[in-house]
């Protein structure tokens, strides 16, 4: 039986396609496999954004809680998607709750560790930015369309 | 346009009686219509009829069930104005006028041997349902079949009973996403376009059929192009204010085309230049 190493797991993820091998190794040093039961939180709003996740299996809901109202799900994320982008933006605080809707298997990345490595090696930082910026832009576009309420009465 | 449509005066409606009425959503009902005399004309998935609420007016509504499934027409109508409101309030036994069928249909036959990707937004699932029913009736003729549905909230999901039935088949992928939901919803939340990159289809051999609000279709088409589906294989059902339904009056002019006669179903490569033009 062979044990899959973290570098190989990371290299096989579409999100890290074409990620230079030496950076995969650096990233692997900050990564570990994590499991969450349905209902468990991966991230809580306001907490230090010192971790983000690459979902390998399962579904995660990003939620906002408003006073005196039930939480509202703003988006769901699944296999191959990133949960947590606030680790890139000061003051590095989580903006949403992230809750496992069903059992979730994910790669958890120690964002504090990775931020340090990005600061030390800006090429690594740029490679990370190239992957995270499209994610953020895509979510911004999708949110704009949700706000448009296109299915409402014409 | 099939020539038999004009065997009689194309402006003269036939009389139909409302059979069953099913409340689908708070503002939408499905009407089953039976002809009061003679057989119902044949039609293709994606075509529409002009439904006439006597004394109120006429409105174009797509068929929402396959021709194979009954002897009448089935239409899902949303109460969105004076005419559609009058139609949505019709009760079993009421009489209304029907002209049609009109327009082009979904490329259900052309899609044989290919993957089929259906992308529906809101009430856009209604014109697509006959295509889905026909594809599933001959499932062995198609590759992967994927149905992606987007709507406002879990309370606004059209045809929940059909979606459930299709989901239970092992040979169809059905994904539903809503724009917002509470924590009691266990499905997806996000705009329908977010489902496209997650879906199992081979872009080189896929026929996509898209129907919903025009903004949604524009962004769905863009996501499909990005996924590698050629523009000629992406089909959209356009909606414009239709009056004559036979390309005479010009009410539904869409650039150099008429939606009633040249559409409502168009391949994207024929209309892509018009989708972002504000004045059209």
TrEMBL record, chain B:
Gene Ontology molecular function: any one: flavin adenine dinucleotide binding
**One biological process term in Gene Ontology:** pyrimidine nucleotide biosynthetic process
Q: Which cofactor does it need?
A: [2Fe-2S] cluster
Report keywords, A-Z: 2Fe-2S, Iron, Iron-sulfur, Metal-binding
Q: Where does [2Fe-2S] cluster bind?
A: 244, 249, 252, 260
Keyword Hydrolase on this protein? no
All residue ranges annotated as the FAD-binding FR-type domain in the record: 11-108
Which InterPro entries does its entry note? Cyt_c3_hydrogenase_gsu (IPR012165), Dihydroorotate_DH_Fe-S-bd (IPR019480), FAD-bd_FR_type (IPR017927), Flavoprot_Pyr_Nucl_cyt_Rdtase (IPR001709), FNR_nucleotide-bd (IPR039261), OxRdtase_FAD/NAD-bd (IPR001433), PyrK_electron_transfer (IPR050353), Riboflavin_synthase-like_b-brl (IPR017938)
Cofactor binding comment, as recorded: Binds 1 [2Fe-2S] cluster per subunit.
What is the name of this protein? Answer: Ni/Fe hydrogenase subunit gamma
Annotated source species: Novosphingobium malaysiense
């Amino acid at each position: 039986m062979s044990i899959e190493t973290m570098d190989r797991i990371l290299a096989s993820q579409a999100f890290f396609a074409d990620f230079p091998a030496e950076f995969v190794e650096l990233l692997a040093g900050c990564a570990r496999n994590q499991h969450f039961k349905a209902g468990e939180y991966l991230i809580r709003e306001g907490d230090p954004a010192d971790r983000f996740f690459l979902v390998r299996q399962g579904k995660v809901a990003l939620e906002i809680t408003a006073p005196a109202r039930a939480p509202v799900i703003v988006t769901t994320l699944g296999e191959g998607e990133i949960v947590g982008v606030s680790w890139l933006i000061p003051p590095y605080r989580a903006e949403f709750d992230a809750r496992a809707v069903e059992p979730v298997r994910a790669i958890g990345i120690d964002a504090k560790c990775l931020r340090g490595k990005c600061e030390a090696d800006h090429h690594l930082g740029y490679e990370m930015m190239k992957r995270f910026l499209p994610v953020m832009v895509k979510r911004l576009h999708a949110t704009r369309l949700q706000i448009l309420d296109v299915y409402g009465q014409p | 346009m099939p020539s038999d449509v004009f065997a009689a005066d194309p402006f003269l409606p036939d009389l139909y009686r409302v059979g069953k009425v099913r409340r689908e959503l708070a503002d939408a009902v499905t009407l089953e219509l039976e002809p009061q005399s003679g057989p119902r004309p044949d039609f293709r998935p994606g075509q529409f009829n002009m439904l006439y609420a006597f004394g109120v007016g006429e409105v174009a509504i797509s068929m929402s069930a396959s021709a194979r499934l009954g002897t009448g027409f089935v239409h899902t109508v949303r109460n969105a104005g004076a005419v559609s409101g009058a139609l949505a309030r019709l009760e079993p036994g009421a009489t209304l006028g029907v002209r049609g069928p009109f327009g082009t249909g979904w490329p259900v036959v052309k899609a044989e041997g290919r993957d089929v990707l259906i992308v529906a937004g809101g009430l856009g699932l209604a014109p697509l349902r006959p295509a889905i029913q026909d594809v599933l009736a001959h499932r062995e003729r198609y590759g992967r079949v994927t149905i992606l549905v987007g709507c406002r909230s879990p309370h606004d999901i059209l045809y929940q009973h059909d979606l459930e039935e299709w989901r239970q088949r092992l040979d169809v992928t059905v994904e539903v996403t809503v724009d917002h939901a509470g924590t009691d919803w266990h499905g997806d939340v996000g705009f329908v376009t977010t489902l496209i990159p997650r879906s199992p289809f081979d872009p080189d051999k896929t026929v996509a059929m898209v129907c919903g609000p025009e903004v949604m279709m524009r962004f769905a088409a863009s996501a499909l192009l990005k996924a590698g589906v050629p523009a000629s294989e992406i089909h959209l059902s356009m909606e414009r204010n239709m009056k004559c339904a036979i390309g005479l009056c010009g009410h539904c002019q869409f650039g150099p085309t008429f939606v009633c006669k040249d559409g409502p179903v168009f391949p994207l490569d024929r209309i892509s230049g018009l989708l972002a033009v504000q004045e059209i």
